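Sequence only, no structure available. Ideas?
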Amino acid sequence: MWAMRVAPILPIVLPSSSVRDLFPTPRLFVVLGMLVGVYLFGAIWPGLVVVGHVLAWTIALAVAVEAGLLFAPQARVDAVRDAPARFSIGDANRVALTLQSTYRLPVRAEVLEEAPVRFQERRLRTVVQMEPGGAVEIDYTYRPLQRGVYGFGRANVYVSTPVGLVARRFVTAQPQDVAVYPSFQTLRQYELLAAAGRLDVHGIKPMRRRGTAMEFDHIREYARGDDVRTLNWKATARRAGHSETGLLMVNQQREERAQPVYCVVDTGRTMQMPFDGMTLLDHSLTAALVLAGIALGKDDLAGLALFNTRMEAFVRADRRPAQKARILDALYAAEPSRLESDLDRLAASLDRRLGQRSLVVVFTNFESRAAMRRAMPGLRRLSRAHVVLVVFFENTLVRRLTEKRPQYLDEVYEQTVARQLRDERREMARELRRSGVLSLLVRPQDLTAKVVNEYLAMKTSGRF
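Reply:
I predicted one. C-alpha cells follow.
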C-alpha cells in the first residue's frame, strides 16, 4: 500500500526520459530487505507495522531526494579516454580515463570500462570518490598478445550521492580503435641503450671492430668517454669565439661502408607455435624490428621480406628516415599462413630482387631434420651470393624435460626421448653450418638479444 502512495512522487522528481538511467544500488536492496523483515515481525508484534510504514516513507523520500540531486540541471560526470593510437604487443600499455564532475556535492563514481573483447576483461570495475567539481584520473594497463585492431567501447559511469540508495548512469567516452603492432617498446629500449653504450643490459656483448675503415660524419660536443684523439681544435676555437661555455668539439666518425641487412620472416604453419602467450611469428617480428633498428643505427641499410608459399611483402633495404616506419607497417600487416613455407621459391625471389651482397637473416622453424633438408637447396642457393643466417627455435618443453630430474620410470623414458629431440636440433644447426649456411638455435625468450649479438659479431669480424 505504501508503494502505491509513494509512486506518484517519483515522476515529480525525475524527467520521464531519464528514468532508464536510474539504477538501484546494493545498499537500497539491503534497506528494503530490512523493511521486509520489519513487516514480517509485525505479524507477531503489531506495533512494528507502524515502524515499517515510517521506514517505508523514509526510504521513498530518501530515494526521491537523491534522484533529484543526481538529475539536477547541468550536473553530470564526463569521462575522457587517453589511449595511444598504437599498442606494443607483449608489453604493458597504459590507458588513462579522466573523470570530470560538475556536481556541487561529493559523489561516488563506479566506472565500468568497455575494454576490447580480446582482453576478456570481465571485471574492469573501478570505484572512486569525487569532490565537488573535481577530477579523477584512472589508469589501466593492457598487455595484448595478438596483433590487430582492438576496439574500446564506451565508459559507463554510475554516480551516487553519499546516501547511496540509487545511482545515475552516464554513458560517456567515445569508442576508439587501437592497432597492436610488433613490440616497438623493445625497439626503443635497445635504441636508447645503444645510444648510451649500455646494450650489455640486455645481454649484448660489447665488441670492437678491428681494421675498420672510418669516415667523417659530423662535428658534435665532447661527451665523457670520447676518444681525445677525435678532438677538433679548430671547431673548438671557433665555438670559443662565439660562446662563453668553452665546450670542446669532437669529430664523429662512422663506418665507411653501409651493408644491406634483410630480415626475412617465415609466416608459415611452423611459426604458429605458442610461447608465453604469443606465437613464434610474433616473437620473430619483434626481433626483426629490433634488428632493423639496430642496423639503421649502425648506418647499414635495413630491409624486410615476409614469405610462406610465396613472397608476401618486400621492403627494399634503405636507410632513409622513413625506412623504420615502412618496416614497422609491413610487420604489422603480416598474416599467418597454415601452409608449409617454400624456401626454394624464397631463394628464387630474393635472387631477382637483391643486387648487392647482403646479410639475409631468415627467421623460421623446422619441425624435423627432414623439413630442414627440404629447405636446404634454397638456402644453399641463397648463400652463394649472400651471407645467410638461419634463426630457428629450441623446443622449450623439450628443454624443460631434459633438465628435469626423473623420479619414475615413465619420466626416464620421456627424458630419453626429449634428449634425442634436443640433440637432433643441435645436429640440424651443425648440418646447416657444414653446408655453408650460418645458423642460430635459440630459445624464444632469448631471440632478440641473440640475433643482435650475432649481427654485431658478424659486423665486427667483417664477415659481410
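Residues 1-13 have pLDDT under 50 and may be disordered.
Hope that gets you unstuck.
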